[in-house]
Amino acid sequence: MLHLGLGSFHRAHQAVYLQRLIDAGDTRWSLSGANIRPDMADVVAALQAQGGRYTLETVSPAGEYRYEEIEAIREVLAWEPSLSAVIARGAAPSTRIVSFTVTEAGYYLDTKGKLDLTFADLSADIERARRSEPGGEGVTIYGAVCAILRARKAAQAGAVTLLNCDNLRHNGDRFRAGLLQFIERAGDADLLAWVQANTACPNAMVDRITPRPPPELRARVQAATGRDDAAAITGESFIQWVIEDNFAAGRPDWARVGVELVASVQPYEEAKIRILNATHSCIAWAGTLAGLGFIHEGTHHAAIRKVAFDYVTDDVIPCLSPSPIDLAAYRDVVLERFGNPAIRDTNQRVAADGFSKIPGFIAPTVRERLAAGQPISSVAMLPALFLAFLQLWHRGALPYAYQDQGMDEAVARAICGAADPVLALCSDAGLWGPVAGDARLVDAVRGASARVKNLVNGGTKV
Questions:
Q1: HSE on the CB side for 401, CA within 13 Å?
Q2: Which alpha helices (DSSP H) does 186-236 contain, by range?
């Protein structure tokens, strides 16, 4: 397997499942890892120096620490502009799966699931693909995978599975649609036909809270294990992976180590995206507004916890019922996980990318509740919290740098500077799709914004 994106999540999740399989005696599969942009150079260098090995620290909600050495990544490819080593590995006949971890914004999809060509790096990448020039400083996931598949076709290396390992809803379907559009716009009809016949893109749901490694982690790992590990990572003890069993060229025996292989991932991904991901963002935005720094602090703040609990109970569970999942129990497990003080996940990390999270995590619940003629007062708290958070950013009053790949800064500042910011936020079609400007949405967010002010001002009721 070749994985694109050597960040903490991949190394705390996909690589761990493969390590479990290796530990069980199945050594038929290994991982090669790479980044397609010049990110995390220090981590990549450390992984190379350590032969791909690193230490994973996990912490349970009860505060139990565990340390294990992960050796599943057998090859670490350093970034260079042409991506030649990455393309060669992806085009090798022995590579049967190319997987990747991408943020929501990194798919460059508009509200209709089409490529959004207003992004300059995406348009530039299409032009490079048209000229058969792989790589580049701003390569997108589509450009990198297109170059791999073009080389794979030329080498007659056979079929391959393209596997998403991220939070995008219907990620395999949507990535495949974006990739085919990318290749079509690049003008390569032969490659387009080959990809349609020789690739599979199963949908998948992944879950493990993996904060950025804190500065003290290296010393903690050394004290516990005796290893001076410059690439150590930390995460919660909980882990889950659900994949549609649709592979083009074989797969590891993941079911043996707890991966759920299913016919449809939809109920699992909807529960995870709406209950875990949206609630995570809710707590991060609210916690920041309340002057807190960490997710566990907001989870234990009674008013913030109630906002998150009510959002799931009042609006999400009715939308997702009936479900093969016990949604109320899942809600409670999620809040228990978020309350783990040992994880020390920062509001800064979780609050990021709100302009992708509103349409991806929150708007579907709003639309479904409105379509059913039901109230949305609880879910409306989330965009109200985001608006108050965004206004802090607009005033330069956030206690940390805000990162949002999907944000058009001019649009964001226009919302904050409008005579009626609630109306401006609720009228943004990119955030809300067909319910943008709906009077019921505007009224609900306006009412929620009044409750948010009480939270911001230190009140105990929201």
A1: 2
A2: 189-198, 217-225
pLDDT of 115 strictly over 90: yes
Print burial letters for 95-112: b (CB count within 10 Å at least 16), e (below 16): bbbbbbbbbbbbbbbeee
- State how far the Cα of 134 lies from the Cα of 190, in Å rounded to an integer: 17
Mean pLDDT of all residues in 256-278: 96
| pTM of the predicted protein model | 0.88
- Over residues 163-168, the mean pLDDT reads 92
Element holding 322 (H helix, E strand):
none
Cα separation, 142 vs 163, in Å, equals 13
Residue 346 phi/psi, 5-degree rounding, is -85, 150
Q: What tokens were used for 186?
A: 């690049």
Alpha-carbon span 12 to 208, nearest angstrom: 8
Bridge partners, 262 (sequence order)? 244
* pLDDT more than 90, % of the chain: 93
Outline where 272-380 has alpha helix (H).
Answer: 278-289, 295-299, 302-310, 317-320, 327-338, 347-351, 354-357, 363-371
Return the structure tokens found at 460: 């105990």
Contact 162, 182 (CB under 8 A): no
Which tokens is 408 given? Answer: 């058009």
Q: Is 360 helix (H, G, I), strand (E, B) or coil?
A: helix
E strand or H helix at 233 = strand 233-236
How many whole angstroms separate alpha carbon 357 and alpha carbon 344? 22
DSSP-assigned letter for residue 109: B
Task: Give the residue from 319, 282, 311, 367 showing the smallest Cα distance to 111.
Answer: 367
